[in-house]
Amino acid sequence: MLDLLLRNARIVQPGVGVMSGSVAVKDGRIAAILGPRDKAPAGETVECSERILMPGLIDPHTHFGFGSDETDFRTESRSAALGGVTAAFTFHRSADLRESTGPWRDRGLEQSCIDFGFHFGLTSRLHVETLAEAARAFGVTSFKFYLMYKGAAGAAKGFAEIDDALLYAAMQQVARIPGGVLGVHCENVEVIAALRPAIRDSGATDLRAWDAQSPDFLEAENVFRVGYFADKAGCPANIVHLSSREGLEVTDYLRSKPRSAPLTVETCIHYLTLTHDARAPEGKVNPPLRSARDVDALWQAVADGRIETVGSDHVPRKHATKGPDLWQASAGFPGIGTLLPLLIDEGHHKRGLPLERIAAVTSLNVARLYGVAGKGWIAPGMDADLVLIDPELRREVRHATLESFSDYTPWEGQSLRGWPVATYVRGRCVARDGAVLPEVAEAPGGAYMAREIAAAEQERTSGGAGA
């Protein structure tokens, strides 16, 4: 007998289309795809009434631990589940990744109700020198380099070794990791130092000022540097949280030439739904929010495949850190719980983005890029990570219902059409009708996504990201 039958749904297959059918689940995996009216004995049968059934989202870009180090895995995984996110990658940084990763993984296993994996943050020579050792010990094949922490900006954060030499050395090491990919924050902080003082001294405190002190061409310049160096090093590179049309044009140019390794692009939901006219300082983020022209260009790239993945860049800090003014406020804000509703409302309903494209950039392409076996697709043998969506359900965004450690959201009060009504992690319902189920608090049940390094290489060479 089946454990679960999700009957009579509109099943979204990433990059392919939408089909009518039912999904049968057994032992945490998809057992079969049946006809929409087919019946089969199951412990639980859910009548989907032709609502949308998508693969659960895999958020490629989160910062658990930036709110409460002690409880973020609990609160932020619950917020994720409410938003249809069934797995997330979060950035892990420490002085020595070999020592800190095990305890951080164990905390996630204790608290998280969704599956999770790590990207390692590379900020020192020790990180680069021990990269292969740490990668194999913890099944991590994805890494991040922070160009915005060069020089004085890095020293202020305690990072004294970030420069182009370390960037290139990191690329050389990542190129040797089967399935390895290096994500890079592209923002030329050295030129920011020449622009910021005059803007700040003018008294400007809105988000247009934040955009002006780190304009689009500083992102674009760094994108070129990363793409060029990565080609010379033979390193697969991913431009994370791309924010601008000019940066996108540089990636188009780089990818128009023969390359020794793939160059992929990620953007984040705030660059698709907010502009530099949003409220400050709540909307302060790095790179900055840009213009409506940039928003339109990024949506077009999501639609035509030039942007392969979309994440939240979720940072669950308190509103108190967003002040007292723009210049002293922390950067970043929460977004994991609203990633999918925003994509459905703004992308699907308002811009005509096909549901299968949304599923590709939030699930299948993430699984392929980061070598996650068994996720990203609705097919027999895959993990039963699923989200059931009512595309017509309209609800206002309220931070109080999102269960995050953060106590605000930049989309507060916005009415969105299209919300998850049930979220399943490996066949287990963790959220239903806007609430996390009570039993999830007792037994969260999230698993750590260690990646088999050889398997990651096979996955990428068999197709890679880009559905």
Could you walk me through the main structural features you see in this protein, from its secondary elements to its overall organization?
It is a single chain. The chain is of the alpha/beta class and 467 residues long. The protein folds into two domains: 2-53 and 382-440, Urease, subunit C, domain 1, CATH 2.30.40; 56-375 and 447-461, Metal-dependent hydrolases (TIM Barrel). The chain is 35% helix and 24% strand. The protein has helices spanning 72-82, 97-111, 125-129, 131-138, 151-156, 164-175, 189-201, 207-213, 216-233, 245-255, 269-273, 292-304, 339-349, 355-369, 438-442, 453-461; strands at 2-13, 17-26, 29-34, 42-47, 52-55, 57-62, 85-92, 115-122, 142-146, 181-185, 237-239, 263-268, 309-311, 386-396, 415-425, 428-432, 435-436. The strands form two sheets. Strands 1, 2, 3, 4, 5, 14, 15, 16 and 17 form a nine-stranded mixed β-sheet that branches. β1 (2-13) and β2 form a beta hairpin. α1 (72-82) packs across α2 (97-111) and α6 (164-175) crosses α9. It is globular, with a radius of gyration of 21 Å.
